[in-house]
Amino acid sequence: MSSNKNMTTGIWDRNHKKITTKKGGWRVGDQVYSHGYNLLEDLVGEVSFFQQMIMDMTGQLPERRLAEWLEGCYHCSSWPDSRIWCNQMGSLAGTSRARKTAGVCAGVLASESAMYGPGTAYGVMDFLEYAMAEHRKGVSVPDMITHHLKTHRDVAGFARPVAKGDERVDVMQRLASRLGFGMGEYETLVMEISEYLTAEYDECVNYSGYVVAFLADQGYSKKEIGRITALIVMSGVLACYVEANDKPAGTFLPMRCDDIVYTGVEDRELP
Amino acid sequence: MHKDGYIGEKRMTKKVAEQRRSIKFCEKVSTAIWKETPNADNPYHVDEARCHGYEHLALANNKSFSEVLFLLFRRELPSPEQLKVFDTLLVSVIHPGPRHAATRAAMNAAVSKTTVSHILPVSLSVMSGEWQGSHEISLAAGFIRKNRWTPAEEVAAQRLEDMGDSVAEGDITVAPGFGTVFGTADPYARKLAENILALNAELPRTAWASELSDALSKADCGWRISGLFAAVMLDLGFNPYQAELIYQIASAPGIAAQASEKASRPLTDMPFLADENYVIE
Fold first, then answer.
1. Which residues of chain B make contact with A104, given a CB cutoff of 8 A?
2. What's the distance, Cα to Cα, between the start and end of chain A in Å?
3. pTM above 0.95, yes or no
4. What is the ipTM of this complex?
5. Can you tell me the distance from the alpha carbon of B61 to that of B19, in angstroms, rounded to the nearest whole number?
6. Which chain B residue is nearest to residue A163, measuring alpha carbons?
7. How far, in Å, CA of A19 to CA of B193, rounded?
8. Backbone phi, then psi, for B47, in 5-degree steps?
């Protein structure tokens, strides 16, 4: 690589005290622009909130049925069980009398996890891109999985904590059908892999594996899929926040001192 | 539509069944860090607390915040030399500066009257990234750990060669924690590094990273503050995960102070670009 000495600060200078956007903005007394639309006149009441949300993340207004599928997708991931890790952030915030936005943001931040939730999308897509490339070369599912497991501990998109299997996949497939979506090549491959893993390892496709495959079939990139699913746990977290917040403070899973097992060093004096 | 609700020949109908895994979760939380002795009358109250064996009040009365911070993560109090390096490092990053995205987030939140307890979560979320953010710390620490046994000049040469003659605009990341900042090597990061190296403490990873920074200077690249923080934290015995967390703690005071300064100021105390400088394409 050559020296950088003559490099200017051009890209920063061009953006100095200036915002250039393709997204839109507010012109006071005129209108609110959103991706070339008049947001208040063209979009509000005409397109669904989920259509708007997908457009905000991808730049393109999707057809309404895709937004309906995504709403179902959020619905499936927002269940109000306060034992679920992200939901518990909402409950703990609620019982601590934190504001509702702090509660929901804590839960959403927690869901950016390598184990569950929207944080898994990138890993799943990395695997699916590998699997699809192998599939297009004619490599069989058993061979591609065997090769993959030589360098990875597991197959992203094909297992989940606490339970085996994921009934949300079936629910979402039925919704997709009802909305008129056929099965694309990513989803087809994912289901083939799932059948193989079920037979060989007793593990099958999880929700993230299905969702990422479906959205890949709609033409979205890894980054776009991650963004589209970013807030997927939001409503369940809020439900848990609300319930804990409406009860007396500190009463969500209170802990006594002896609920903690101390495993550290013995008592000692300062040197 | 088929009777099972599917449309299209290729759609599979095999149901994905769900069953609980036979795994056992613990009944109680365990920790080696903090010990609480319950009050005899109320088991939710504490009579005595200990941190890695030391009585909490004894620590409060005899040790500094940074010593106990070190103890919490490293399980032992720092030696005088470690404490000097640790304190110098913590103060080196105590304020990312008023231009940093996290600080601007804090100041904007303050003038727009955001709930005060949200200021640090907001700004530390902004700071969580890989460009001038806390996540770059653990990436840099991982890079240093992996490469430190290879001569720094060799690593620099290989990395620069791998990058080729890239003409893309924006900063160059030769490796996490090393590259350009706003187009050129960061002279202030270098200054902070030299200040810490001048302590003449046992800092082999930092010395290696300094050699790497020097070797990168021919491409006008070098230390980023994240690379420096990562290297010194490794030398102090912290792991990458801990280094990332402590960077957030260490940077919070400057960010919080900037928010505090703006809290009573009007909305107009922060810029709001005029329409002519907000270009909708």
1. none
2. 53
3. no
4. 0.90
5. 54
6. B20
7. 34
8. -90, -35
